[in-house]
Amino acid sequence: MRDDNTIQKEGEAEDPLIVSQIVSGQKDLFRLLIRRYERAVYGMGLSFFHNREDASDFTQEVFFKAYRSLSRFEGRSRFSTWLYKIAYNTAVSGVDRKKEYQSLSEETVDSLASNLETPETVLLRQAAQGAIQDALEDLPERYRVCVDMFFFYDRSYQEIEAITGFPLNTIKSHVFRAKKILREKLKGITENS
Q1: What residues does each domain of the chain span?
Q2: Mind listing the pLDDT tens digit for each residue in 95-143?
Q3: What contacts 123, CB < 8 A, 6 or more positions away?
Q4: Mind listing the pLDDT tens digit for each residue in 137-181?
Q5: Fold type of domain 102-193
Q6: What are the DSSP calls for the chain, one per residue?
Q7: d(Cα 102, Cα 154) in Å, to the nearest integer?
Q8: How many C-beta atoms surround the C-beta of residue 105 within 10 A?
Q9: What is the CATH number of domain 1-99?
Q10: d(CA 186, CA 181)
Q11: For residues 151 and 144, what is the distance between their CA atoms, to the nearest angstrom?
């Protein structure tokens, strides 16, 4: 049985062809790209804006910008990387500086919770989720962005560099330091279980 990541990666292989067809006039094919990436872009919007309405507006704005810029997609990176760069830049320029980036992990853990059935498992999950969220919130914002891109969006260091504009070694350092901080913060929890 194929997992969602396998299906997603197979779909990404079609993206350059779909883009070229859209640019050549088959505009209705853009809905395929929206369907494929809407959830991830919306998740990034939630991470930056912290509410569903702003995340929804953000998602529409990102896809509008991407549609207008499709002719500039050169295929040197994956389409998803190109799209996430548009999304990241849109979020950074649009976010109120008083608001901070919040990790997508909370949304991810909530969506996984629906598969758990026993009350004990639900309580354990909630405790783990709370501990992970607290630990992630304590990370500096630049670390959280890199951790989210790496673990929750499954982006490589090079793709994170293309999306955020952070230097490659800085990204590696941020992910390494974030993992070290999280390991230390969560150490007591795993020892008590």
Answers
A1: 1-99, 102-193
A2: 654 355 555 554 444 444 444 456 776 666 667 666 777 777 778 888 8
A3: none
A4: 778 888 888 888 888 788 889 999 988 899 999 999 998 988 888
A5: Arc Repressor Mutant, subunit A (1.10.10)
A6: ---HHHHHHHHHHHHHHHHHHHHTT-GGGHHHHHHHHHHHHHHHHHHHH-SHHHHHHHHHHHHHHHHHHGGG--SSS-HHHHHHHHHHHHHHHHS-TTS----THHHHHHHHHTT--SHHHHHHHHHHHHHHHHHHHHS-HHHHHHHIIIIIS---HHHHHHHH---HHHHHHHHHHHHHHHHHHHHHHHHH-
A7: 17
A8: 19
A9: 1.10.1740.10
A10: 9
A11: 10
* 0.85 exceeded by pTM: no
Fold match between 1-99 and 102-193? no
Residue owning tokens 């505009």: 27
Closest residue by Cα to residue 42 from 5, 78, 84, 6: 84
